[in-house]
Amino acid sequence: MTAEPDALAVVNQLRDLAADPMNRRAIVQDQGCLPGLILFLDHPNPQVVYSALLAIRYLAECRANREKLRAELGMMLSLQNVMQKVGGVCVRRRC
């Protein structure tokens, strides 16, 4: 077993922290958390992507965070990629 935490454990911890309104501003202001969440949006494991999306949704519930979220490098492109992947799955499954 590796000493490095796996992606799902890390993103779930960030999601759980973001679920608490008291943590939301600090997470967005931290230099590593938001860029890390954005990287998780491109992860091949759908559970990791879902947890990252949920964490970002929690962070966006704080109005003060919204502009920073919109302006974060890679955020909109990663969200568009997620939408395309989900759209492709729905088309194949006839959602």
Structure description:
This protein is mainly α. Helix content is 73%, strand content 0%. It contains six helices and no strands. The chain has helices spanning 7-18, 24-29, 33-40, 46-60, 63-71, 75-93. Helix 3 crosses helix 4.
How is this structure best summarized?
Helices cover 73% and strands 0% of the residues. By secondary structure, the chain is mainly α.
> End-to-end distance, in Å?
39 Å
Task: Tell the overall outline.
Answer: globular
Mean pLDDT: 87
- Taken in chain order, the helices and strands follow as HHHHHH
Total helical elements: 6
Please give the number of β-strands: 0
Unreliable stretches (pLDDT < 50, length at least 5) are: none
Radius of gyration computed on alpha carbons: 14 Å
> How much strand content do the residues show?
under 5%
Specify the helix fraction band. Answer: over 70%
Structural class, please?
mainly alpha
Main sheet: strands, sense, barrel: none
Question: Keyphrases for this structure?
Answer:
single chain, globular, mainly alpha, 95 residues
Give the secondary structure arrangement, pairings included:
Elements: H1 7-18, H2 24-29, H3 33-40, H4 46-60, H5 63-71, H6 75-93
Helix pairs in contact: 1-4, 3-4
